[in-house]
Amino acid sequence: MNRRWALASSVAGAVVVALDGTVLTVAQPRLQRELGASFAEVQWTSTAYLVAVASLLVFAGRLGDRYGQRQVFALGLLGFGAASAAIGVAPGVGWVIGLRAVQGVFGALLQPATLGMLRAAFPPDRLAGPLAVRTAAIGLAAAAGPLVGGALVTSLGWRAVFFVNVLPALFFGLPALVRPGTPPPASRRTPLDMPGAVLLAVTLSCLVYALTARPVSAAGLAVAAVAAAVLVRHERRAASPLLPPAVIGSRAVGAALGVLVAVSAALFGTLFVATYVLQRRLGLDPLLSALRSLPLAVLMVASAALCPVLLRRFGARGTTTAATALLALGVLVLSGATSATAFGCAFALLGAGFGTVMVAATQVVVRRAEVAVAGVAGGLQQTALNVGPAVGVATASTLMGAGTGPALLTLAAVAALAVPLTRALPGTGEERALQGADGVASITQAPDERVQDSAPARR
User: Fold this and answer.
1) Of the candidates 83, 85, 93, which has an alpha carbon nearest to the alpha carbon of residue 163?
2) Domain spanning 1-180, CATH class
3) Which of 321, 352, 396, 399 could form a disulfide with 303 if both were Cys (CB 3.0 to 4.6 A apart)?
4) How far apart, in whole angstroms, are the C-alpha atoms of residue 18 and residue 13?
5) What pLDDT sits at residue 303?
6) Given this model, what pLDDT does residue 280 score?
7) Is the pLDDT of residue 187 over 70?
8) What is the pLDDT of residues 128-167, one digit of tens each?
9) Are 295 and 353 in contact (CB under 8 A)?
10) pLDDT in tens, 335-377
11) For the chain, which residues make up each domain, given as ranges?
12) What is the 3-state secondary structure (H, E, C) of the chain?
């Protein structure tokens, strides 16, 4: 797989998804007025997408492992763009909700493939750089989303924000569809674990629905718990489990996923509270609120770019520990912020901590997975980054009745819970050992890679 194309496509896919979520938030008030929708219906334009995408990420990753990451990427990106265009011409809110669920299905196909392509294209010891570029691009999209969305909604209406995805989908999706690359050999095509996929989908969809409901749905949590118990029992007995033991059985991978859930919960829960503080308490409009939080995106981009250097110097353990503590400190600073300077410092700490953790923890998850299960690893990473925000926002909304201070202190504690988990991540010595092993592997695999790369030329 061409490395430049893989990196550009991975970045494009990640940016399309990140931009879609941020511009939708800006468009929802106008959408509600023009379509005559209730507040609950507007909430479902987000919930339908979240439930669909979270429930299918891991299974979609397995499809990429079986049929080829590039093929699944093309299907996911083109489908995502088509669903976006359909939402832009939807006649009513019911259509918007249904099409958002369809968009979530294609988003689930797209997201794991963006990581699976990187794992297939780059040697494990060189993954940190591409992951840093990808994370920095997501930070830029998060910063640009409210501004782009506000400009489009103001000048062209809410429908315009959904056509933003169409051109990138065509530009990157069509080449991947026309030249899908070499599919994995038949020897690597393990049978699909459909019962496991259904059980995992039920578990995650009920969990995400329960956490996004207001109030939190106890029935949804109960169904998710029962389905999870049945899933564990099934996976232990399955001949070809959906969740490969080599991936979920790794202590380092489990810790990295736990860290991603905790820090994303803390960050998005904090942003939920911060939006209330900036717009309700301080009386800022959405544009000024976005500008006040701009240091978060700037430091997220800068920290992602710096993270590969930190990983080489301090290893994943030291880097992630310091970054998690930095994020927790940012939440604490925000809990007592009253001036513009204090808010700027708090958002900068949040961005620096989250950007670093994103690169470092994702590198552990993707690097430790073999190419044959890279899609599943990517699906697990994306699942963590979907469940975490749902947990954080649910926690914040539940505690807001007691005031913003207690809510933020609790979220700082959630971030701090990730610090003990970082002890299971590889240190500098283990990183060097892995690099040595990766070097041996790359030498022994080089002939096969050359044969695959030259296959299209022979045709």
Assistant:
1) 85
2) mainly alpha
3) 352
4) 9
5) 92
6) 75
7) no
8) 889 999 888 988 887 787 778 878 888 888 898 899 889 9
9) no
10) 888 888 899 999 999 999 999 999 999 999 888 878 778 888 8
11) 1-180, 193-241, 245-441
12) CCHHHHHHHHHHHHHHHHHHHHHHHHHHHHHHHHHCCCHHHHHHHHHHHHHHHHHHHHHHHHHHHHHCHHHHHHHHHHHHHHHHHHHHCCCCHHHHHHHHHHHHHHHHHHHHHHHHHHHHHCCHHHCHHHHHHHHHHHHHHHHHHHHHHHHHHHHHCHHHHHHCCHHHHHHHHHHHHHCCCCCCCHHHCCCCCHHHHHHHHHHHHHHHHHHHCCCCCHHHHHHHHHHHHHHHHHHHHCCCCCCCHHHHCCHHHHHHHHHHHHHHHHHHHHHHHHHHHHHHHCCCCHHHHHHHCHHHHHHHHHHHHHHHHHHHHHHHHHHHHHHHHHHHHHHHHHHCCCCHHHHHHHHHHHHHHHHHHHHHHHHHHHHCCCHHHHHHHHHHHHHHHHHHHHHHHHHHHHHHHHCHHHHHHHHHHHHHCHHHHHHHCCCHHHHHHHHHHHHHHHHHHHHHHHHHHHHHHHC
User: Hunting for tokens 């110097």 — which residue is that?
Assistant: 313
**Fold: same for 1-180 and 245-441:** yes
Tell me the pLDDT tens digit for each residue of 20-66: 877 887 788 788 888 888 877 887 888 888 889 989 999 999 998 88
Say if residue 443's pLDDT is above 60.
no
CA angle 366, 370, 374 (to 5 degrees): 50
| CATH architecture label of 245-441 | Up-down Bundle (1.20)
pLDDT tier at 455, thresholds 50, 70, 90: very low
